[in-house]
Amino acid sequence: HPAVEFLFLGTMFHEKVVRAELGPGNVQGVTCCSTFAGSDLPSLLADCTVALFPSYIEGFGLAVLEQLAAGLPTVAYDVSGPRQILQSMGARLLTPAGDPAALAARAAEILALSVADYERLSAECREIVRRYRWSQIASDTLERYRTALQSLGQESTPSARE
Questions:
Q1: Does any domain span residue 147?
Q2: Is the Cβ–Cβ distance between 51 and 67 less than 8 Å?
Q3: How many structural domains compose the chain?
């Protein structure tokens, strides 16, 4: 679609290399940012509507969380890291690993959503990230330790830091 623009972030390659990989007929509307400061990420994502995470070899996929935090529905391959993060979204954002056509089709579906449906999906994406806040992770970890201690028949005692 000629109106679609693509922003490739963190490619680690010069834009000429990325454009060469895409081929001469596929470079219109493509911008590459091989590296960037973390503080620049919110402004880089501000004009985006949907994000793609086409990796099937990265473990956790911190970029998925970053994109979701920006309210971007993030389409990813159904592999361990993204699956763990996006499990509550079911098949809405996950596609078969290694199938770029399915990834593109899912992104096109998101782009075709009504404004109201897109806003609901965007809000769900932001909500997912709440589970990964450090305060939530610490609280969940502490609760698991307490549960484990209780199952061993030991009383959990509040720590000095609570």
A1: yes
A2: yes
A3: 1
pLDDT of amino acid 43? 93
Cross-strand pairs, 95 = 77
In DSSP notation, the chain reads -TT--EEEES--S-HHHHHHHH-GGG-TTEEEES---GGGHHHHHTT-S-EEE--SS-SS-HHHHHHHHTT--EEEESSHHHHHHHGGGGGGSEE-TT-HHHHHHHHHHHHTS-HHHHHHHHHHHHHHHHTTSHHHHHHHHHHHHHHHHHHTT------TT-
Q: Note whether residue 77 is domain-resident.
A: yes
Q: Token pair for residue 115?
A: 């404004």
Query: Which residue is associated with the tokens 């290399």?
Result: 17
Residue 139 lies in a domain: yes
Identify whether 65 is part of a domain: yes
- pLDDT < 70: residue spans in the chain: 1-2, 154-162
Query: By the 8 A CB rule, do 127 and 162 touch?
Result: no
User: Any idea what the CATH number is for the domain that residue 79 is in?
Assistant: 3.40.50.2000
pTM: 0.79
